[in-house]
Amino acid sequence: MNLKEDQISKIDPLLEEFLMNARGDEKIRVIMTLGDENQLRNNQALPMLEPGNFPSPIAYRQALIERRKNQLSEVIGNTIQELQNLSLKPLGGTMSRVVVVEGSATDILNSLELSGVNNVSLDQLVGLPEVAPDEAVNHFAQLYIKILGSDLDQKTKKLIYQASKQYILNYQKRYNRLRVLGMPQPVNLDDIYTEVQCLQPDEIRNFESITALEENYRHNSSRKLTNEKSARQNGITIANQYAHLMILGQPGAGKSTFLRKIGLEALKGKSGQIQGEIIPVLLELKQFTTNEVNIYNIIEQEFISCQLPLAKEFTNQLLRQGKLLLLLDGLDEVPNKNFELVIDKIQEFVKEYKQNKFIISCWTAAYRQKFQNFKEFIIADFDDQQTQQFINNWFYSEVDKKLGTGEKCWNKINSEKATRELAITPLLLTFLCLEYDESQDLPKKKATLYDNALDILLRRWASEKRLPYEPVYSQLGIDLEKIMLAEIAYDNFAKDKLFFSQQEVLNQIQKFLSNNDNAPKNLDPGKILDAITIEQGILVERAEDVFSFSHLTLQEYLTAQYIDDHHLVEKLVTRHLIDERWKEVFLLVAGVMRGGTDDLSLIT
To answer: Alpha-carbon distance 144 to 164, whole Å?
Structure first.
């Protein structure tokens, strides 16, 4: 909304920023100071009332109240009534110039034109209006009626339109609001959505040996550990192109957000980006915590819960006619005890209703080609254009646009290759934006930045998604895991290895468990490796039985941590002082060192 100078002069900076970015229909609560303070001060200079002039204490008190009311009336005038005329709601009593007022952002803005409104500050955002776009409601209702295919009376049709609105509202409430890492309040998906690009897995995995992967990296001028030989394809395009689609990606790559976006676009009908007359239903697979897995009933319940008429008949016709878009999010998030059962149930359902459209998402490491006749795509790492779009979406407020915050953040991230490498997924790019937003800069000590990024992958991501910890976590613990990862990182980096076989990393895990006094001896190295790859994504399977760290930056940071923990600084200087490959490690060691200045002087 546009604000005038005289309006800005009456409000605090927080309210100013909010109103500048508001649509107008948001419901907010503000604190208003009404009237002129000088006039009130003059009124208070009137002669004092003497208790002896009144027949009783009650009469004296009543006289004081009446005088106060009269004084406020003279100062405030008709401002309270004028606020009410604007559909604003004053809360509490009227015995003070300071009042709490609730109403829409537009009405609050209009109230700033009142001469009796002196100063306004934002108290809180009360809520956003629940609005289902008419076009989406009409599209859903008309398609619902068409699928039923029987003659319906006007009363039933009216009920369908009313319930269609509720279905769309429910969908928006559940899937158009995202909980973003580190932010206390959810944000609209459209405000931060960045276009998804995908790659075919076969093209990424075309280097099947460790030697081939190492050679490809050495000839690659960037720090990327992945090979992208095939052309990127737009995510929405492939969602329209294939009826059965498997979307793979690393932790935080944006798989869940992508599926939500597809569903929201399908609800828009002709104005949306998803083609065809289809009804979207999104199921989060982590809900399957028991042996009760009845996909048909869950879909049916989605319509019944909105009180859509003839919901059972509609569900049957919807599936028979192939008009369902079933979005199954988070195959990897199914509890281990139910994993095979859920896969069997999904495959049975797809086989019976194969004429419908199915899109499943799964972490790459957890997927083992379980589904036949599904076209597989992997969400590609962000390129420069996507990264810039994401950052600009993040810093979208009018204040940030005026200050060029997005461009400054991008320039800062892009100025260092190691930091830029972290910005290839929405998860860690979100982390970088949060870091920049806090101080308009990134931490000077890169070791601190990378340690926080590692913490995101180890702890906070699973916590934010409300995923249960598997037993391996409670037995091994995050602190021990970091020590183990540092040992794996150093052992391989010292051997000039960025890629290593599954057996090599299993041997390293077993060695750590055997040699560390604090590590449990009964843990299965294979299960630990699964936890690190499938549930955290810190190690990534680049080809069959070939692993690497997800980011070269993380391997370098963990290597530096190991060097400091084991007092290997002098050895580092002696062997690798002029080795370009160790340059980042040298810089990071300086950041993680807890030793004295004599040690520090060795590497500076």
So the answer is: 9
Neighbours of 282 (CB within 10 A): 20
Q: Please give the Cα distance from 359 to 285 (Å, whole number).
A: 12
The helix or strand, by DSSP H or E, that contains position 316, with its residue range, turns out to be helix 311-320
First CA to last CA distance, the chain: 53
Helix residue spans in 354-425 (DSSP H): 384-394, 398-403, 405-414, 417-422
How many residues make up the chain in this entry? 604
**Do the Cβ atoms of 94 and 79 come closer than 8 Å?**
no
Residue 11 DSSP symbol = B
Neighbours of 444 (CB within 10 A): 8
Q: What are the distances in angstroms from CA 147 to CA 18, 313, 314, 324?
A: 44, 10, 7, 11
Instruction: State how far Cα 258 lies from the chain centre.
Output: 11
Q: What is the pLDDT of residues 355-407, one digit of tens each?
A: 999 999 998 766 766 788 899 999 998 999 999 999 998 887 777 888 899 99
What backbone phi and psi angles, to 5 degrees, belong to 118? -95, -45
CA distance 383 to 364: 19
The residue written with tokens 């934006």 in the block is 433
Count other Cβ atoms within 10 Å, centred on residue 595. 13
Cα separation, 340 vs 348, whole angstroms: 12
* Cα 389 to the center of its chain, rounded Å: 15
**Is the pTM above the cut of 0.90?**
no
Q: Measured at the alpha carbon of residue 386, what is the angle toward residues 381 and 391, in degrees to the nearest 5?
A: 115
Question: Does 129 score more than 60 pLDDT?
Answer: no
The bridge status of strand 279-284 relative to strand 324-329 is parallel
CA–CA separation, 192 vs 171, rounded Å? Answer: 18
Q: What are the angstrom distances between the C-alpha of 377 and each of 237, 243, 246?
A: 12, 13, 6
CA distance 263 to 175: 9
Residues 6+ apart with CB under 8 A from 105: 1, 18, 19, 22, 23, 24, 25, 26, 27, 28
Q: What is the mean pLDDT of residues 170-177?
A: 86
Q: Are 280 and 262 in contact (CB under 8 A)?
A: yes
Provide the phi-psi class of 55: left if phi over 0, else alpha when psi is between -120 and 50, else beta: alpha
Rounded mean pLDDT, 264-287? 93
pLDDT at residue 506 is higher than 70: yes
Structural domains of the chain in order of their starting residue, each with its CATH number: 5-127 (3.30.70.80), 195-379 (3.40.50.300), 384-442 (no CATH), 478-599 (no CATH)
Please say if the pLDDT value at position 207 is more than 50: no
| Amino acid found at 574 | T
Cα–Cα distance measured from residue 108 to residue 256, given in angstroms and rounded to the nearest whole number:
37
